[in-house]
Design brief:
Layout (H helix, E strand, L loop, with lengths): L1 E2 L6 E4 L4 E6 L2 E2 L5 E2 L16 E6 L6 E6 L5 E6 L1 E2 L2 E2 L5 E6 L11 E3 L5 E5 L19 E7 L6 E2 L16 E4 L4 E6 L6 E5 L5 E7 L13 E2 L2 E2 L12 E4 L6 E6 L12 E5 L3 E5 L5 E5 L5 E6 L5 E5 L3 E4 L4
Antiparallel strand pairs: 1-2, 2-3, 3-4, 3-5, 6-7, 7-8, 8-11, 9-10, 12-13, 13-14, 14-15, 14-16, 17-18, 18-19, 19-22, 20-21, 23-24, 24-25, 25-26, 27-28, 28-29
Length: 322
């Protein structure tokens, strides 16, 4: 889900390739865009392929979509949107990332005010995590690029940590991730938060503080704080991690700045696929909450500061005080 600046509509994507627009709780009759003939989906609702991410460029309002194409590779393209409908002829292909397998495609995207686009890229699921440690490709990383305003493609932003290093993909902003599923850039601090889906035991919530980059978050030598392979590493630890006793896949999250739930103000709100919430307050102390809302796949903050939750089968929810 994502809001377009200056637009009252909430834009929603479906895994098969559709984009809808919802206004005042009602989904509009016309699709914003239909990419079903260009999107590969293996196992609806149970795989990590399909249309996976949406965001809008703060510079010109173009809609960016992240999807696995018919070859199974990650493709990010952008379109002009007018009157709640995308112009198919306005497409600009921004980046294509080769994927070695159908799993761990990431999909989350965020812009900063300068027009830098951050993309969560999974390790591809084909090498048991080895691709996440091969820095000649962007698998298992957060990528930072600057899409061009006058045509397809992108440039590498100044300040990327590996700019000028011929042995490392210059798009990489931070690395050592398995499947960074959702990204959130705090508009007040510039901190970049993301959730990294675990392998067999551990889910984690990670932080890249504003003004820093180049962090190694450990995969595939570590899953969370648990070492699973030998190797020298200068690892950045997770802010919070949890096990299979609570959830199965970390989702989200955002900082709450709304007014409907005063006691939650300032906390980071993450989710888990099982329809559960992780609330990180002062000192990142965690509170765990269980919701009856089905399969949670996205946590976003609206223009009103309130939190909206997306379930892949059940619909859109708004978080309210209990």
């Amino acid at each position: 889900m994502a809001w377009r600046p200056g637009d009252p509509g909430l834009y929603l994507i479906g895994q098969p390739g559709q984009v809808w627009r919802m206004v005042d709780g009602e989904v509009q009759d016309s699709l914003v865009l239909d990419l079903r003939d260009r999107t590969s989906v293996l196992g609806l609702g149970s795989s990590e392929t399909g249309l996976l991410g949406i965001v809008f460029d703060p510079r010109d309002g173009r809609m960016f979509l992240n999807f696995t194409d018919l070859d199974g590779d990650t493709t990010v393209s952008s379109w002009v949107v007018e009157g709640g409908v995308a112009d198919p002829g306005s497409e600009r292909e921004v980046i294509v990332i080769d994927q070695p397998g159908p799993g761990h495609n990431g999909g989350g995207m965020q812009f900063d005010p300068e027009g830098n686009l951050y993309i969560g890229v999974g390790d591809g699921g084909a090498s048991n995590g080895a691709d996440a440690r091969d820095l000649t490709n962007p698998l298992g990383s957060i990528v930072r690029i600057r899409p061009l305003l006058d045509g397809p493609g992108y440039e590498i932003p100044p300040g990327n940590p590996f700019l000028g290093n011929d042995d490392v993909a210059e798009e990489i902003f931070a690395f050592g991730m398995r499947n960074p599923w959702r990204l959130y850039r705090d508009p007040d601090t510039g901190d970049l938060w993301f959730s990294d889906v675990g392998n067999s035991t551990t889910e984690e919530i990670d932080l890249i503080p504003a003004g820093t980059s180049g962090q190694d978050f450990g995969w595939n030598l570590f899953e969370g704080s648990r070492r699973i392979r030998r190797g020298e590493i200068d690892m950045t630890p997770a802010v919070f991690e949890y096990g299979r006793d609570y959830g199965v896949a970390a989702i989200g999250g955002v900082r709450y700045r709304g007014t409907d739930i005063p006691g939650l103000r300032g906390a980071m709100v993450f989710g888990d696929l099982l329809g559960r919430l992780i609330l990180l307050g002062d000192g990142y102390q965690a509170t765990l909450e269980r919701l009856d809302m089905g399969t949670l796949v996205s946590v976003v903050d609206g223009p009103d500061g309130e939190i909206y939750l997306l379930s892949i089968f059940e619909g859109v929810y708004r978080l309210v005080a209990g």
